[in-house]
Amino acid sequence: MKGLVTRLGLAAALMVLTGARDPILVPEVSQHEVQVRQGFTGTELLLYGAILDPAGSRAGESYDIVVVLKGPTEAIRVREKDKVFGIWVNAESTAFRSAPSFFAVASSRPIDRIVDERTAAIYELGLDYLQLSPSGAIDPEEQARFTAGLVDLRQRQGLYQQDPGGVEISGQVLYTARIALPSNVRTGTYTAETFAITQGRVVSSATAKVEVRKLGFERFIASFAQDQPLGYGLLAVCLSVAMGWTAGRLFARV
Predict the structure, then answer these.
(1) What is the pTM of this model?
(2) How far lies 193's CA from each of 89, 139, 187, 232, in Å?
(3) For residues 244 and 223, what is the distance between their CA atoms, to the nearest angstrom?
(4) Is 167:66 a contact under the CB 8 Å cutoff?
(5) Which of 12-21, 62-71, 77-86 has the lowest mean pLDDT?
(6) Are 24 and 14 contacting, i.e. CB atoms less than 8 angstroms apart?
(7) CA torsion through residues 16, 27, 211, 149, sign
């Protein structure tokens, strides 16, 4: 909260010095670094802040706030399952070049009551407007089907979320939103974008960063696997063989 007060003071001074007419968002996050240790079960981020309007809430107009939290993007291949002779097997598939590993949207009201579809698509305000980049040419209907499948899968994993009433606004000045990070989140830099919207138009936006990092032995293993994939694979095989041999000797004695 102290950081927010300091940033509010700086933003107010900037408005006076520059004679700004547009509102300014001042965002803050409860944790700028999330540490993933052994036994990590997830955490909850509090995204809060204030909106400073030199016109005084746009001459009586009210604001809506939408917060979008995105994780690092990754390439992913989505496969469909098909039942052949009573057995589920891999069928058609498509690849996406850049799908966010985590995507959460919280808003003060349902998105369709705040903006039109075009604006929602431009700013990715909701799971229905998530922009994924397929690899190569793909039929639009097929792309929509695979996109819906990916969104559904990651919703069930807790990695994609949407809360149409997740933002609380006090006095058209302060706002708060809570977003849960599950235990299976990917490490990296997360971007929290906040949008102030009135009469269907985005009038101000601001960004905050959150770092999700592994610490201790987990960080060593992750770094080793990423920097030395061949060595990591050989070590994993050797450990598996050693554990199998040890278990075989123990059971042989029994």
Answers:
(1) 0.75
(2) 40, 31, 18, 37
(3) 26
(4) yes
(5) 12-21
(6) yes
(7) negative
Which residue type, as a one-letter code, is found at position 46? L
Q: Are 18 and 10 in contact (CB under 8 A)?
A: no
- Residue 216 DSSP one-character state: T
Residue 18 and residue 36: Cα distance in Å, rounded?
42
Q: How far apart are CA 100 and CA 73, in angstroms?
A: 4
Q: Which residues of 90-100 are buried (b: 16+ CB within 10 A; e: fewer)?
A: eeeebbbeebb
Please write the tens of the pLDDT for every residue from 71-80: 999 888 887 7
Six-digit token string for 173: 């000045």
87-100 and 73-84 as β-strands: parallel, antiparallel, unpaired? Answer: antiparallel
Alpha-carbon span 41 to 84, nearest angstrom: 38
CA distance 202 to 64: 9
Q: Which helix (H) or strand (E) holds 163?
A: strand 160-163
